[in-house]
Amino acid sequence: MTNVDLVPSAGNGLFDRRSFLKTGFAGGAVLLSAAAPGAEREAWMNAPGAALGEIGLPSEHEAHVVRVGQTSAPGTTGAGVTRTPLEYLDGIITPSRLHFERHHSGIPPIDPGQHRLVIHGLVERPLSFDLETLARYPMTSNIQFLECSGNSFTMLHDEAPQRRCSEMHGLISVSEWGGVPLAVLLEEAGVSPDARWVVAEGSDAAVMSRSVPLDKALDDALIAVYQNGERLRPSNGYPMRLFLPGWEGNASVKWLRSIKVTAEPAMSREETSKYSDLQDDGRALMFTFPMGVKSLITNPSFGFTLRAPGIYQISGIAWSGAGRIARVEVSADGGQTWADAELDTHVLPKCVTRFRTAWRWDGGPATIMSRAVDEQGNVQPTREVVMQGRAKQTFSYHINAIQAWRVQQDGSVANVHA
Ligand SMILES: Nc1nc2c(c(=O)[nH]1)N[C@H]1C(S)=C(S)[C@@H](COP(=O)(O)O)O[C@H]1N2
Ligand SMILES: [Mo]
User: Is 204 a pocket residue for ligand 1 (Cβ < 6 Å)?
Assistant: First the structure.
């Protein structure tokens, strides 16, 4: 094993992030002993391969990489969630077919030719747009995350649930979202001086609606029609959705049919009895929009087993609704000492950043965890801090606590409370 260049940086086997990149650290590669490659033809080299196809599908050997934990409300098939299999993915983009889903009443079978978006209320000129007219406005695209504010709620449970990373945290995905800035359309409609909010309404059976402050609508809100270069998937809002970068997923209304400009928020179901955080004094916080700074080690995580002591790559994702990730630290000794992780090339605002670091597992129990800091100086809090002042419940929103995984002596990985 050639790890002489690895420079220790923190307790229990963490290495300096610069030495991590420079060293081709030997993980599990097998030394070639006899025959060089090419001496024998593999079985699949003896006949022409499979036919061309109109659509590329994943390898049949990757059939386990599917959305996780499909659950729907009793008596329904389409009201519930599926989660992104974070622990099987790398990089920052979520393949569209694995983007998490959250529907309040299923996916509406919208005919794009008939679908309209209307902008009305406190405007000089109420307007109606179909897909074709929308396409004539200037478009833009950005790679950004979407996270349901109900993500990670099982971290609140007294006992750390023995569940996969995705089962706990898979309500976050990243796409390149393309579409028309809402500001452009509002400008054309002519917003009245007394307007302060817009109320967005979906074309699903739930008629899900959310109020958005006018400032956000005029800042970076998007009427998204493209996702990773193709039209939105039906599950993600086809043919058009509101996309609010960095904000709780619920407010990014899918299957968008109406934007009503108003003076006051609508106080709809999803912003009163739901998606508001109950405090321990019996009051609830009104409107928590941006998602807090957060990170997760996706690998190793619960469900994986380290085969033998040696050098491993710890890898994960970090993001913040406030902007770019400035720094991710990793600990291998349960938070006593920390070392900076290496960030992949793309550190984009309101997007997921991939981090990595090298770690030597000595074969003993070790608690690994990550902590993110964003460009505004927000530091990812501990579970204890996140729970301060909250009503004691098994479900709550906006949980961005530090996640810890415990590598046990047999190499298996457990979920533990930090
Ligand atoms: N019309 C409508 N918009 C909606 C929803 C819905 O049920 N109906 N679910 C919301 C919630 S709670 C979330 S987290 C995101 C999920 O978006 P996705 O399914 O594309 O991941 O959409 C939001 N927009
Ligand atoms: Mo959500």
Answer: yes
> From the CA of 173, which ligand is nearest?
1
Q: Which of 82, 86, 100, 102 to mutate to test the pocket of ligand 1 (most atoms within 8 A of CB)?
A: 102
Atom of ligand 1 nearest to the CA of 104: 7
User: Tell me: the pLDDT tens digits for 211-227?
Assistant: 999 999 999 999 999 99
Tell me the pairing of strands 310-319 and 404-407.
unpaired
Cα–Cα distance for residue pair 137/126, rounded to 1 Å: 17
Q: How many CB atoms lie within 10 A of CB 207?
A: 15
- Global pTM? 0.95
Judged by its nearest atom, the ligand closest to the C-alpha of residue 83 is 1
Atom number of ligand 1 nearest to Cα 101 = 19
Coil, strand or helix at 198: strand
Q: What is the pLDDT of residues 307-346, one digit of tens each?
A: 999 999 999 999 999 999 999 999 999 999 999 999 999 9
Cα 197 to Cα 125, 192, 194, 215, 257: the distances in Å are 17, 11, 10, 8, 17
CA 253 to ligand 1 centroid distance, Å: 6
Q: Considering only CA atoms, which of 289, 356, 288, 330 is closest in space to residue 418?
A: 330
148 Cβ closer than 6 Å to some ligand 1 atom: yes
Burial class (CB in 10 A: 0-12, 13-18, 19+), 384: exposed
**Three-state secondary structure readout of 240-251:** CEEECCCEEHHH
- pLDDT tens figures, 68-121: 987 888 888 899 999 999 999 999 999 999 999 999 999 999 999 999 999 999
> Residue 144: beta bridge partners?
175
